[in-house]
Every structure is written in C-alpha cells, then in structure tokens.
Amino acid sequence: MRSWTSSAFSLALICSATVASAQAGGGTGTIVGQVVAVESKAPLQSARVSVQGTTLAAPTNVEGRYVIRNVPAGSHTLRVQMLGFAPRELQVAVTANGTATLNFELKDIPYSITPVVTTALGIAREEKSLGYATTSISSTTLEKIPEPMMMQALAGQSAGLTMTSGSGRPGAGALINIRGASSFSTSGQPLFVIDGIPVSTSNDSRSDALGTGTSGSRQMDFDMENVDELTVLKGAAATALYGSRAANGAIIIKTKSGKAGQPLRFNFSTELRYDTPILGGYITDWAAGDRGYYCNGKNVNQGGWCEPGSNSATNPQTQRTWGPHKDSIPQVVFDSVGTVRFRDARADFYKMAAPTSDNSLRGAGSMGDLGTYTLGGSYLNQHGVNPAEKLNRFNLNGNVAIHLTKWITAEASVQRIRSNNPYQDDSFSGIDHTLINLPPTWNITNGFMPDGTPVFLSGGTQPQPSLQWQIANEFNKELTNRWIASQQLKFNIGAGLHLNNNAGLDTYVSEYGRFINQRPWLASQGINSGSTNQRKSTRTTINDDLTLSLDSRALGESQFRVSGLIGGNLYSQDFAQLTGTGTTMVIPDYFNLGNFQTQTVTGTLTTQKRLLGAYSQMEFNYAEWAFLTLTGRNDWSSTLPTNANSYFYPSAQLSLIFTDALSWRPRWLDYGKIRVSKAKVGNDAPQYALTTRYNNASAPGANNDQQQFGGPSIAFPFRGITSYISSTNLGNPTLRPETTVEDEVGLELRMFGGRVNSEMSLYRKSSYDQIFSVPSSAATGFLNISRNAGNLRNSGVELSIGGRPIDTRLFSWDGRVNWAKNRSKVLSLAPGVTSIYLSGYSWPQIRIMEGQPYGVIWGYGWKKNCVAADPCYQGVPEGTLLIGDDGYPIKSDDQRNLGTVQPDWTGSATSEFRLGRFSLSGMVDIRHGGKLINFETQYEVNSGRSLFTADRYTWTTWDGVNINTGKPNTVRLFKDQDYYPLIYGTDRAEQQIEGAGFAKLREMTLAYRLTDQFARRLSLQNATLFVTGRNLRGWYASPSGDPEQDLSQGTNAGQQYFRQFSAPQTRSILFGVRSIF
Amino acid sequence: MRFIKRPARFAPLLLALGAAACSDFLDVNKNPNAPENATVDIRLAGLETAFLHSAYSGSTALWGSEWTQQFAFNAARRSYSQVQNYELFDTDAASSWNLFYATVGNAAFGMARDASADADAYYRGIGKLFLAWDFQLITDFWGPAPYTDAFKPEIREPKYDTQQFIYTGILANLDTAVTLFGATGARRPTSNDLLFAGDITRWNKLAHYLQARANLRLAYASGEDKTARANKALAALAGAFVSNADDADFTYPGTANARNPNYTFVELRTVFVASQYMIDMLQARSDPRLPILFQPILYDSIKGTGTSRKTYPAKPNTFVGHLAGSDVYPADSTVSIIGKFFSDSNATLNIASYSDQKFTEAEARLIVSGPAAADPVYRDAIRANMQKLGVATTAMNAYINARPSLASVANPLQEIITEKYVANFLKTEPWNDWRRTGFPVVPIVPQAVISTIPQRIRAPNSELSTNGVQLAATGIPTGEDGMKVKLWWAGGDNK
After folding, report:
1. pTM above 0.90, yes or no
2. Which of A750, A976, A984, B366 is the most buried (most CB within 10 A)?
3. Residues A99-132: pLDDT tens digits?
4. Which one of A723, A828, A992 makes the best mutation probe of the B interface by having the most chain B beta carbons within 10 Å?
5. What ipTM does the predicted assembly reach?
6. What chain B residue is nearest to A575 in terms of C-alpha separation?
7. Which residues in chain B touch residue A708, judged by CB atoms under 8 angstroms apart?
C-alpha cells in the first residue's frame, strides 16, 4: 500500500499533466528524478528544479520527486535550488517522447536557512514564504550544548533572544526575553509548545525570591536529547495564530520521531559532566579579625583565640575580614596559632560537583507502510557544586504514527517525566549569604566536632551551626511527576483538503517540602525549633486544535496558488495547591506534618482559565516568488467580562524573493528576499481581575524600624472568629484585552554559492492597554486597581550572518554572528502614575518608570547639584556630587532613577572547524551595557569581604563641592572599617550599582567521528566522541564577577537584575559518546 | 474502517461537535479562593482587629511613644531608618498611610455603607465610629489628607482637605454614630464583636469619649474658641465612661498569631528598652508604677560571650534606662525592659481608658473653670490609671496625696499632661499632647536628623508616585522638612 500522501500527489501530477499536454505540441520529452540530501539520503521536498534557459520548472514532492514535462528535445542544464543546500546543476539529454531520469544529491550548508520551518500551530511552511523572522535550531546544534536545562541552551542561539540564568543550581530556571520585555505585570516569558501542546514552565512550588529563594523552574522536566528541532518565533506576526498566550513570542519544540522507510535504529548517548564553581570577586588577602587585630574564628570553647589588644577577645568568631594583611601578620599570631592559611571559604564549600551523568537511549524505525514509531528513555543524574543540590530526572517517551486507512493517519506521543530536585535555600536564608561573609582565614572544611556536635560559626545564645550541619538538616525537596501526551488525527478528505485534530494534555503533580530540623543545642535553653512547609501543586493544561486546511497545489500547477486553513482552539488550564505548615518539632529528624506542635493548613488555592479561539490563515503564492499571508484569530477568554470576552486580531505578511521576481541573479547573489509584516496580538486578563474580593481577615504587626522588626501579626480565625476584610486590590469589570502591535521588515540574502547567509530584521513593537494592577493612591480605598493602561515600545534591529567560508574535502569552517539591539521605552503608565514597582525592597528596587527603558534601578542616591530638590549652585556643573562638611557624600532625600538594567546590545559568535573526522566548535556570548544592583555589597563591605574594600587604609577625597558653600570639597577621608558601610549602606544604593555586561566563552566542543570501518567493527552505524566545555571563560563588567547570579530563577523580569546570594554559576567539562546502531 | 471511507462527510459533524458545549466552558472566572461578598457581621471582627491592633497600636503609635522617650532603641541601625533619631523614610510613612486608608479606612467606610438597612443601625454606627477615629489618626499624623474624595476609587487623584475640614467630618461622623447607637430594634452583634461583645451601651460611651477627645484636641487650634471646645468636650463626657469597667480593652489569647502588639518588646528585648528619660522621671517622683511599667535589670554587667559569658547579678529592683539616641549599647538584661502588664503575649491592650478620659476632663475643666476645679478630676485620673495597673492602695494614695495642688503650681497644664504621659504608656497620645502643649519637656536626642521632635509624619512615597499633584498642592514639604511643620491644632496653619 502506498501512503495516502503519495497517491494524492500522483493524482495531482496526473491532473496537471493532462492540462499541460493539452496545450503543448510534440517534439518534447519528460524529465523525472529525485532530489535527496547527500549524507542522509533523505528526500527533499519543495526543491525547485528548473530547466536553464526556459521557463520550465517544477517543485519536488514529499518524496523528493519531480516531473518536468514538455521539455524540448535536446541537451539541457537542470538547476536545483533549495534553501539550506548548495545549488547544483547537471546536464541531461531529452529525446522526443522519451523520459530522462536525473537524480540530484544536495549538500546542506550548516548555519543556513532551513527550507521548511515549523511555524505557529506546528504548521510546516516554506521559509521563503514567511514574512517574519524565525530561528530554527536543529538537534545537531542542540546536541553540542552540554546544558541539562533546555532553556539555558538557548543562550546566544538567536538574535533578539536573551537568556539570563539566575544561578548555577541544578534545576534553576532561566529567564528568556524575546525582543525585550513587553509586559508590566507578567514575567514576559515566551510560550513553550511541545508537539503542539503548550506546556508549563512556571515554578509553582515556592517563590519567595527576597527571603528564602525560589524553587526550580519546570523547565527542568524537558530532555534536550528528545528534541528534534526547536523554533523560535519572535515577532507578533509569527505568533499571531497562537494569539494571546504567545504575546511574548513562542518556542516551538518538535520531539524526535521515526522516519518513514527507516529500519530500526538505536541512538545511544552517554555524557559525563564535571562542574566546578565560578568563584572570585571577594577579598582573599586580608585575615579575619576586627580593627586590624587577628582572630582565628573558632568558638571560644572550640579553640577560639584573638591577638592581644583585640576588642573581640571574648568573641574570636567575629565574621569580619578586618584583620591584618596576609603579608603583615604579627609574629605573636604565628607563635600562638601557627601558620595562617588563606583561602576563600566559598572555594572550600563549593567543590567540584560529583560527576553528572546523562544517558539516553532511543529506538526509532518504521513499520513498513503502516507507520513509524519511537521509544526512548533518558536518565539525568545531576549534582550541584553545593553537595546537597541535585536533579534526578527520568524521562520516558514514545511516539507512534499509524496510517489507519488510506485517508487517516493517527499519531500519538507520550512523555512520562519524574524530576527529583532537592535544593538549598537561596537569598537571605541561603548558604551563600553565610559564605560571602566568612573571612578567608577561616577553615570551614570540618563541620563537626569529634563527638558529632556541629562546629559553630558564631557565639552567643543561638549560635550558627556549621554549613555541613545546615545542608544536612535544613533543605528543600521537590518531586514532580509529569505526563505530556498528545494525539493527532489527520484526515485526508481529498481535493487538497485535510482535517487535522491535535489534542494534548500536560499535567503534573509537584510535591514540595521545606524541612528545618530541630537544633538540639537550643533545646537545653527551652527553645523548640524545627519547622516544615509542605505543598502539593497540581497543574493541568489541555489544548485542542482542529484545523481544516487546503493546499491548492493538489489541484494543479499554476502560477498563482492559494492555500489556507481554518481552525478552532480549545484551551484550559487548572491549578490547585494545598499547603500545610508545621512549627515546633516534637521528635527530631522526623518531618511528618503530624510531628509538629502547631499544624496549619494555610488554605487551598485554585485557579482556572479557559480559552476558545477560531482562526484562519490564507497564503497567496504567485510564481513561487511572491507570498502574501493573511491571518486572523478571534479569542474568547474566560478571564474577561462575559459581555466583552471576544477579541479579534489580524496579521499580514509579505515575502518577495526579489532575485526570482526580477530574474536578477548576479554571480555573488543566489537568493534575496524582502519581507514585511504587520500584526496585532490581543491578550486577555489575569484570572479573577474583574471583581473586588474579601480576603480572610488578618492584621499586620507594627513595623517600627523598617523590615527587621515586625511586631506580632494577627491571623484569623482569631479568638474563635473567622472574618473577612475587603481586598486592597480593586477589581475592574470593564477590562478590555491588552494589545500588542508589531511592524517588522527584513532582508535575507544568500550569497557566493550558498556560502554566506545573512538576515536582518527591524521591528517596532508597541504594547498598550496593558492590564496590570495600577498602583493607586491609598485614599481611594485601594492600593491597586486593575486597569488597562500604559504603553511600552520596543524597537530594535537583529542581524545574523553566517555560512561556510571554507569548504574543502578535508577542511571546512563554518561561522555565524548574531547581533541584536533592542531599545525599550515606557511611553506611558497610567494617568497620575509616574512609576511602578517591579521587584526588590522598599528601597532599593527595580521600577518601571515613564519615559525610561523597561526596568530602572530605584533607590537613594547621592545629593547632586541641581538634581531634583537638591541644592543648586550656579557655576557648578549639574550633577556634581554635594559633599557634607565631614567629607562624605550625602544621601538624597528622595529615591531616584539610578540607571537602567537594559543592555545596549547583545551578540554571539559561533564557529566550527572541521578537519577530517575532527571538529572544533565554540561560541562566545556577549551582553554589553546595562546595570544591576548588587545587594550583597553592603554586607560584604561590613564584613570586609567586598573587593571595594581592597583599597582599605588609604586616603581619599570625594570629588564634589561642599553642600553648604558650593566650594570644591577638600576633606580627606581615611578608608577604614567605618568608612565603607557609610558609602555602600542599604539606603545608599548608588554605590551598589554595577555593570551587568559580560562576554562568555559559552561553549567549546571537540568532537571526533569514528571511521565507518571501526564503527562497524563495534557493530555501530557510526559514533562520535566529544569533549565539551561550558562557561570556560568569562569577562565581566563588574569586579564582583558573573552577573548571572540573581534572584530571577526564571520568574520575574525585575529580579533578573537583583543580585542577592545565589549559588555560583558553574564551569563544566563534559565527555560524551553519541552513537547510532 | 469502512465508515470513514468518505471522511469529508464527517468533517462538518466534527466541527459541530467541537463548537458545542462552549457556553459553560468559559464560565470559570468566579474566584474560588476569595468571596466576592461578605455580610457586615462577618466583617466586624476583621475591621476591629485591623484598626485596634495594626492602626491604633501599630507602628505610628510606637513612633510617637519613642519620640516622647517612653522607650528607647538600643542598637546601631546604620542601614535602616533611625526612627529614634527622627529619621523616617518615605516608605515607612507609606506602610502606615496605606494601612489607614486602604485596609482600615476602606473596611470602616464599607461597613457604614453596606449596613444601610435599619436592622443594621448598630453596625452602621460602628462603621462610622471607626471611620471617624481612623480619619483622626490620619489627620493627626499627616495634617491635610483626602477626605471628600476618599474611598471613591473612580477619583484617581483625590484632593487633600484641610485639617479643620476633616475634623468637622470626624465630629459629624461621631454624632451620627451616637444617634445610631440610640436606635431601637436593630440587631446586636454577638461574639463577632471582639471589643464589646455586642454591648451597644459601651459602644455609645466610646463614641462620647471620642467626641470629647476630638473637641479638646482642637482647643489650641488657630481660629478655634478654646472655651467653647472645652465645653463641648465636657458636654460629651456626660455620656462617656463612668469607671475603669467601661474601658475599651482588647484581649489576646497569647498563642502564635494571636499576641499583644507590644509583644515586640519581649521578642526584641535587647533592642527596645526603657528610656532613661522616663525611668528618671518616675524615680524622681517615686512613682509606684515604675515596677509595672518596666522590669528591673537582671545583671549589673556581662563579660564575654558564648560559653565564656560571665554575668554579675544586679541588686533587686534596680531599674536602668537607656539614653535615647545614644550610640553606646548596653547588653541584654543590663537595661530595663517594658513591663509584662503591657508586653506579655496575652496582655490586654487598652484602646480607650477612663483614666485618659479623666485627664481630658481635667484639662477641659482647667480651661473652663480653672485649676481648683480641675484638681480633683486630675487626681481621679491618676487613681483610675493606678487602679487599672493594680498599684497597692496605700502606695497609690501616698503618691496622689504627694501631688501638689494644681492651684498652687506655676503651670497646672504641665502637671496634668505629665501625669497623662505616664498613664498613656506606649500610646500615641503622649506625642499628640506634646505637640499640642509642649509637655512633658522631652529633650531632643543627641544625633537628631531634624532639628525638632517630629511635628508630623512625612509624605508617603506611594502618594508621591500616584497622587503627586494633589500632594504638592498642600504646600507642605514632602521630604524630612515636612516633619518640622506644626499641625493646625498644634498652633500651625490650617493646611
């Protein structure tokens, strides 16, 4: 039985032949043949075969076959062109009424444009017909990136996409922005779609970025090995068919599946990865102590000692690096404690991680005419540089496609994932918070005394136990069981009509627990400690797309063709969470919720969302060089008012292959395309934003001295009464959908026989009528009001140029450079509202401010001449620092804009050299400009660990004028232990701001492909051995080191630029084998 | 598979199936986590607790108490605002402002609005009473504030009204409350009334007490008739408390999330301690309340930390205060802390007392009829407070008898306010009284950030960023300088 597709196409070809032969006379012949890829022998669809010197041409069908009829008898040159492949020309002789056969093998060009691109809704479209920019990343590229987290692998892969990873912790997420952040309220993350199913990448378990840190991102569930192709849809035109959910771009993932006609093959890969922490950025050449006197840092009853004269004699555990310099340690110290060892405590704690292993086996093949199948499984066992942090992931997946009848194909795929992710707190309660303050002369390698009690890091009545005790007794666990299943039914109705139903389900249960064990040494003081917080979250997404599509190609060849589809979408998302909290542990080491004196179930949280959509896409194709695509989608969302829950948005895209249109093809230019698109995308409201609610009553405690000293608060039920109080958020029953409009133009060129490809896009995107909780004057009775307001504009340029400048049998060189610049500007917020909070503390924080780029650092700065309400001296330049009589700069009265977090530009350069069977590839990833707020600095200057204190014990004079006289400041200040905290304190954010730019050698891979003979001797089809390094080298704008250590963890755009005690990034070396047998 | 030989026939059917059952599909936007409606009786306990615990006894009450040096702050706080040195950040002001308007004010306003039925007259009265009281807190802290435009979410930038205007509204609301409490046939709250358990006569007395206090507060306001205000206060007192038994006391079980707000002083015993000023004052006057207000020190001194820590016990009943604003920080238990009567986790929180009422009466009598008439009332006021605190009768009488006659002293008002200062321990009233009268004469802390004890709280940053134009129209500086500007009732301008 031949497959239904080929019969359909044969039928179509016969029809067109009949029409054609009716028009032409005799003396002609026919040329048939097949076009395949040179290495894989895979048939190439939509290659254009033309007879040179005539207008005769034909595209290849799904089997790569073409037929050109009515070719005048004689010798002809046939040229085959196909995007992504080098064009080829061959001679053929045609006899009258004869049939000549001419087959082509085309050689692919890496880093080039792929001919067929997966677009919204998984629709495969020819690249040349697209009126917008996309980036496709193939499995061959992805396989070279040694990142267990799929999203982190996207760094530098696509111009216009910025990936920021929050920390080096296993399971930590990455934040992705496509063409700039575009939302005031949400995280602005793109939509992730796997095999047609939108999947969740949120972190549902816990998000307390400023306090205890955030749980890992559900990005961790996806296995890179299972990805066949990943497509980044950037602009609104590209995502218009997805609508609301993809307002921030979309990442479309196609998993691997069996290929028709392919015998059973197994792919096996194994990787062993070694992670080492990227440290540095702290003082290491000053000893522990205070005011110049040395202390050995041990507990008084565990051998503590201080240099005579020290005022810390009773507490040698002062966590301060304000002792003597390592070259000037007094003899008395050596006499009393022997040698003093200098070493970063972080280096003692964050060791090279236990090796991470990642094994994957997949079998795929075809069942003859019946269909294809894939079965795969992988196991990742990742260890962090903090020995208590891990990620164990099982991923089983299968895919079967069966031709049920001539007319019906059914396809089903299932992924079963189990992710186990124990991790430590981040942020203030994290280990890193302790570590960055520990003096370099402390030796923390020994965490326990011989009797098993912990070594203490501090004195007092509630001493801090060793880090070893902490990681063993205070931890978080998260176990997720997840299913992603999809099913597709394709009906070939005939006459070019196809009906396709794609249904999918993504569901998981995440069990999270935070476990704080009892501290036995406190029990003797009557302090009962120990607590737990356990949470169960369930999230289920269901998606169904039903489409009817028409391809007029099936009806016959003509210059003008129309194809299109209409479809409907049904989407639902359900989330439910139950939390239990226990305080005061009864039996130590036993974390059952029943083992706590106080047990509370802190309520259930349920959210639901439903969406219905109807859409249509029409593509008009004139002579294969002009393409016009029109789309329209209407959504009905459950989150909008019932009488106004419908919204429509259109897009139009035009693509012109000007080289074909003008038949203008200079020697250097093979292909040129201009594209233009304009699109509008609507977006719905967050759930439950329409009404004002009553919340379970509570009463906050006094907040006397900001933040640290909160008085007791009241939680209801109180005195046996349950009560409700009005929410401080006002609902808005008149919300309208949000709107994003985007204009994009682009130019794509393929030059020098396909050796160079370049692409340029310009875009301008405006997001207006954004729905967000607009802060309102409390005098209205509400702190926030849900409103449609604001206008944010992102505009930018993306450049990508790549190709294979050198290509010989023995040696080849491929390269690509991506460069993007995005400029964002908040055109307006809401009337009367000049700025809104994004993340951070009361001060400092990240805000969105009118007239500024998205995300400005907001805090107390220094008083400056003529700035805001600061004094103003004539003749002194505006912005000159105003210095007090004491010689110190002066904190401003008001918080102000201290700079933007947005980078000036981002770029990456990728290169691959191949010499025989060896290949060497690498990528450099660059972000230039932008600022971050390093909240750690204030603690580090106090403890003496900050590099800003490296110039200690020198004199300085601040450059500025005296605030009272306007005369230049001449007061000299001595930089001692008291100086730095006055300059870098919490409420002096100006000095905590650092450059966030970096350049990183993201990866470097050396691979060797076994000789076929040797491989066969091992019963392998082929095999590749490789060594890869990740984050091998970094150059940072700030002396504090890698800026990718922040609070974001893939959650909130603002937290991305807030550095506050997160696990260090890692440098990895990976050894692997990839084989097919 | 015969039945789908002609799939084209089935396509419309499938589409129809897909489109069916959609009408209910989208109907899921009703929040399952929080109700859209709650009746006033269900909301009462939440309103009372938020007002009494968070607003009336929250941060701002402690700021006033700290600035009048009833307690002192015993730690270096370079990184945070130093309230003890009169430094507030605009964000500190915002948390109180937001609480007063969006949490408490809106809840009181909503109760008065939603209890519109005749049967809900008492709830409406309680709503009006809390609304009046809340506005009094707002205007006493900030001066001008949105009143006419308040609680109208459709007005995005509510305009500010003058203090005099707001006080007119406060008194009108209290009058309405009194009228409503006199209604007959309305349903009474029961156990959902955490303050008076549904006893409307006590609510009525509280309303009268508030009327008296509000009137007297305006006695020294520019443009006000001092005697007329005092007479109005005295008139209101006729319907107010008659003994300590009428006090508005709020009780706490003392368990987790149900503790007295002043438990802060226990939890942070090393940070919030007795002030030297107040200890000295009580000792100089041999006040028997000293051991109730404060706890004696445990240690004379402490040397070392951890296991090498050595303590040197102090003599019994030694009280040591910390000099407010000093940068020398004594160790835990070598300085007195706040007494358990006020700070225990299950201590009763007094909101309005018969004693305070008597002081109000004494001051009014002083204005209307002179010191001799005020003298017995003044002594009753001290007695009421001492009885409340459980001072032994002999000690109490000895102390009261030792007070000089008001007629014999140079400044009888100073005597009244100084005694009132002790009686209103840990409340915001001493700061209000200081701003009105200048008594007691509290010294400025050595490292003061502004040149005076604050006269008001600076503008909140949330108003700066959301209602900046209206805020600027008040003409009061928005920065720290605003804290130096006197309120209208303290002798400043009515703006």
Report:
1. no
2. A750
3. 888 899 887 765 445 567 788 888 888 788 888 8
4. A723
5. 0.91
6. B32
7. 80
